[in-house]
Amino acid sequence: MSSFRYLDLLRLTLPEIAVALTGMLVLTVDALLLKRVTLPKRLHAGVLVACAGCVTAIFLAHNSPAASLPDGMLVLTPLTTIMQTSLLALSFFTLLLCDSIRFTEDIGEYLALILFATAAMMFLVGTQNLLLIFVALEFLSLSLYLLTGFDKQRRQSSEAALKYFLFGGMSAGFLLFGISLIYGVTNSLDLLRIPPAAIDASLDPLLLIAIVMVAIGFGFKIAAAPFHFWAPDAYQGAPTTSAGFIASSSKVASFFIFAQILAVGLANAAGAGGWQTYTPGWAPILTIVAALSMIWGNLAAIAQTSLRRMLAYSAVGHTGYMLLGIIAQTPRSLSALLYYVVTYALASLGVFGVLSALDAEPVDRIADLAGLARRAPGLSFCMLIFLLSLAGIPPLSGFFAKFFLFTATLDAGNRFGWLWLVLLAIATSAISLFYYLRVLKAIYVADGPRDVQAIRTPPVTMFAIWMLASLVLVLGIAPSPLLGWIEAAIRAVGV
Q1: Which domain holds residue 426?
Q2: How many independent structural domains does the chain possess?
Q3: How far apart are CA 121 and CA 123, in angstroms?
Q4: Is residue 362 assigned to a domain?
Q5: How far is 346 from 342, CA to CA, in rounded Å?
Q6: Is residue 223 part of a domain?
Q7: Residue 85 domain-assigned?
């Protein structure tokens, strides 16, 4: 019987196993067969093997049966399939963008770290056990620390990795302390078994402390104010592809599991933070964090001259918007949240994809993009799509993501319950248009150097950027397929 269970477990985790084995295969092939080959050929071979592993994992994930192991150790549902597919797709595009990197010769190690981080995220979204959530989250974090500091030639990269590690270690302590308190109060690590126990303990001060600790721990992971201080340095100092991976894939996984913990495990301790409807719980805490993130993220982004730091503060603002989907506590708001986080990840990865294509030139300040439209019209047009989507301009996916999320939040409130928060989100979103347009002004209006040659982008990198831009546009023109898929999965799960 035990052997059957182990074989069954291996069958259910085949997508994660495929990604992890692909990472080890990339390491082996690069170390044993490609050490004497030129760097571009090593990159092509490594990226090809890694992308093949991601495609294989997508196929295996879609053919995995629904299952639930005891204590929430592994929970496979249609919603899990959507999230794992999204994570694998984002990793696939990140790997394609790696085809043109030149900051390291350790190709196998770098690609393997991306794959190991992807496997950790797949385990993260596929479990409802608090202990395994913590283990997967820390495995993911360790991979991201290494990816941040992988450019050994730049001091900024090492400094960013150190800050990321120190803040990450501190947040892990808060999260582990919160999980231990939840276990102590409810006597369970399974998210599905916690709600009945949380009813009796709804007024327990220890449970309230646990909620605060968990909010602090995940506030760091999702870069919510005031726990975002690592993000500007990480976005600016990390290699471009690493920063894009952090801004996209890790955000998707972290938001999904954070929503799972609150909406499934601590649903009975939510409370309320709407207008004149305050009751203690995690909802009022997230309300404050969301409002602070929207205000601080967008105002701080205006003051930035560094494009990457501007994107980091912009990410803080978007985190505030996304938290609305958790605060509203309805299936519709959850589906809007997942649509938002996936489309945001595509646009963010696209922006960093464009920057990775410009890595041959020093691009850090917004002014460095002056005249880019004349030197690289294709890259400039893609950057236009990505930034306008982040700003929420129709008919791009970012507009519909905000529309669905804001309307779902309004419908969840009683009378004027969440109206003030939605109005704040709309106002700060309008502010964000200013700094996104400032970047586009530099690209299309400002005069750049006259004697600079046209920028040549490697075909694989350009293909990945165009595909990301196409997805952002298509998911805006026709949002129903993805949104309907998510809504059907949520109904099937019964969240």
Answers
A1: 270-495
A2: 1
A3: 5
A4: yes
A5: 6
A6: no
A7: no
Query: What tens-digit pLDDT sequence spans the chain (495 residues)?
Result: 444 467 777 888 999 999 999 999 999 998 887 777 888 888 899 999 999 999 999 999 988 888 888 888 889 999 999 999 999 999 999 999 998 888 888 888 999 999 999 999 999 999 999 999 999 999 999 999 999 999 888 888 999 999 999 999 999 999 999 999 999 888 889 988 887 666 655 567 888 899 999 999 999 999 998 998 899 999 999 999 999 999 999 999 999 999 999 988 888 877 766 666 667 788 889 999 999 999 999 999 999 999 999 999 999 999 999 999 999 888 999 999 999 999 999 999 999 999 998 876 767 889 888 888 888 899 999 999 999 999 999 999 999 999 999 999 988 766 566 888 999 999 999 999 999 999 999 999 987 776 667 788 889 999 999 999 999 999 999 999 999 999 999 988 866
- Calculate Rg over the CA atoms of the chain: 22
State the sign of the Cα–Cα–Cα–Cα dihedral 423, 424, 427, 428: negative
In a domain, 418, yes or no: yes
